[in-house]
User: What shape does this take?
Amino acid sequence: MHLSWKPLNAVLVVAAGFCAFALDAVADSVPTGLPPSPTFGITKFSQPMPRFDVLPRNAVSTLVPAPTAQANTTQQPVDPALGGGTGPIEGRPPGDIWAHQEFTRFPPQIAVDVTMEGAKVNNTYNPGVPSSLNSNINPALPFPPRFHPQLPDQGPLALWTFNGTLPPKLVIGRYAQPILFREHNKLPVDKNQNGGFGLHSISTHEHNGHHGAENDGFTGAYFFPNQFYDYHWPIVLAGWRSINTGATDPKAATPTDTGTGKTNVAGDWHETMSTHWFHDHMFSFTSQNVYKGMAGMFNIYSALDRGNEAINDTVNLRLPSGTAKSFANLDYDVNILLADKAWDAQGQLAFNIFDFDGFLGDRMTVNLVDNPFFEVEARRYRFRILNAAVSRFFKLALSDGSPMIQIANDGNLLPHPVPLTELDELGIAERYDVVIDFSRYAVGSKVYWVNLTQQTNGKRPDKDLSLAEALQGSGNDPVVGKFLEFRIVRQPAVADQSQVPDPLIPNPDLSAVPVARTRTFEFGSGGSQTTLPAAPGSRSEVTAFVGPWGIKTDNQGPMLDADYGRITAGPGYGTREVWTLKNGGGGWDHPIHIHFEEGQILDRNGDPNAVPAWEKGRKDVYRLRPGGSVTITMQFRDFGGMFMEHCHNTVHEDNAMLMRWEIDNNGAPFLRPLPTPIATPQGVTFVPPDDILPTAF
Amino acid sequence: MSTHRRHSTTLFVSLFGGALAALFVAARPAYAQTSAVSSFTIQVSGTASAVKTGLPETVTFSGPVVVTATVVTDPALGPIAVVSVDGRGVTGTGNKTKTTYINSCQANLTRPFGPTDQIQTTFAFFQNTTGGYMNSKTGLLTLGLTYDTTTMALTNVTASVGTL
Assistant: This one.
């Protein structure tokens, strides 16, 4: 039996489960649309901020069954709640098209084996640093799934996270050491057992990995409870097929296990990446699932960005990190996950699924705890800041107005460091890496991160406040103001050897690569769906969604709602294109994410001089701003398959501001067009695309 | 002291027609949108006192600041302004040592739209030397914007530089 996992039906099911709570929400409080989150008497800065929980890096031989290039279709019984019968143990679409590309060339060397499951106590917390560098949190003690010690534990239906636990998870990777990320779906088989929101079928996007589409977390390649999915992250430099193929460039290199050595790798070192994250991408449920906890971070290390501040080999940039290990020292390199949350009268995570403008929480969390403090030494630190909110923008400053140095934007180090006293508004899914020098402060003093952006609905920010205004707080937005207290607790035990050099990583020079195509994508409201009702042979009742948002392509036809069976663009393999992303929605804001390939911003609103210094590097999320446009250039190399482009205000994405594009090679080695996977617990089938836009190929 | 000079004002109006979606209860029409872009370049001056910056001397600033306002109206949302500030042309000089200071003053600020707007934003400034950014200090830029609420264009900008 095949179940029809029509997303709209699922929404209605979830909505029905949410109904009682929704009736309580008539207060329609700003900004959540729900009753205000009760405080349970907690005060700000009364608990430590935990460092991320570093996931074990195991031998691939520990994986049972062993990973395979094509999906493992060994049959198993399927729970009656999922339709019964039998189905494959792996949810990845079967066959050659969805086989891991270059699996033989880049065989996995590290296994990261995780579950997605309901909240439980963490008894294996590994912060990767001693307690003295983790605000004296004792990792040997059980780490409960709660946002504050005075709040109740989150129940297993309220919070769904990697391994079911807090803190959020961190994957450590490095170039030329491919990772096999195996994820087991341990969520309830009954989709109504979701605490009022979220869906139990999942697809994990490694944002913004340079690998085949089968590992990209395609929105339609989701898998079900009791299945697993093997994601193969080869961790290669873009251009490895054509640039520095002999691996002779010393800057294209990866650290050795021990000592100060490095090993050259193929590819373009200008494409080196650093700060990634991974999160759910379930079609029409990304906002709910990510909000529910399905997000982690992924630090990628290289000879340039090594995570060792002492090795002086003329390649290593020596950014703040530590010295004990050859690479990936986390001592002074801190992952930060920002997310606004809300909870109900019982203290359980709450979400308003009826607001299609976007959802805002009224409590600020850092690394999924409420308004914490963090102890630091009087030295330089690197912070990798991720906006993991659903619809909220953040603008960060230090409470005394002191400068920070921005060194990276999204996954990529900038060409030049940028000293800033106020960071730009950080859009959803964007990442800013900054260096803060705490040596300017006396031991015993405190300084705070302050959010300057007031936002009272999911549509867009209302106002960027001055620092003085933000420090007074906002009556309309509880998330304005101080949210993280830095406590300068001691002088560094070892001298700070870190640097912030200039340059960092210059952009790849694309000037000699001809522009094969230009395309225009307009993001706005008033979307319509052309593939429903489903035509004979189509499965658009599964792949298409109807919502208020849409994307208009190349100034032709209507603003279209998402259908992952529709091919909107098909850039040729190996080519370079120029894409213009336009805000067609007036005063709204949309942070647009393009999967797989990083782009360079050529202009904003048609003006090359309007691109600020912190956007001069490579990016994967592009804020449009009200009435704005962004023109970018990208190359399409190394791997193929179907990818996505969408608004990362994930409520907009889910309702239905998302489109599929795929890398085409005129039929070889990839098909043209690719068949669309239709996922069920009993197995994945394929159907032809519902629609191919006239300008796609 | 501050002076201002109107440099350029451009205005364009764009209309996006209204394709309607009626398939979904929450379907939202594509609203008519109007946007106006206007820009001023003004000369600013001011000082950053040694007491507040921790530098051994007062720094005197002067130079141009480019202020660009993009005002967008939307019947569903009301008007809003994105104010872009570029003050990187402003330089500072140490009163004692005559050291030259440069800055990285760029900002894109979301602001409510009205007849006037008062903005305070901070910026980093530092010695114009190799690695000077590692010892940046904080300056304060204060802007006064006046709009024509009919055309949504800037009609006047005042600015000054100081410290927090």
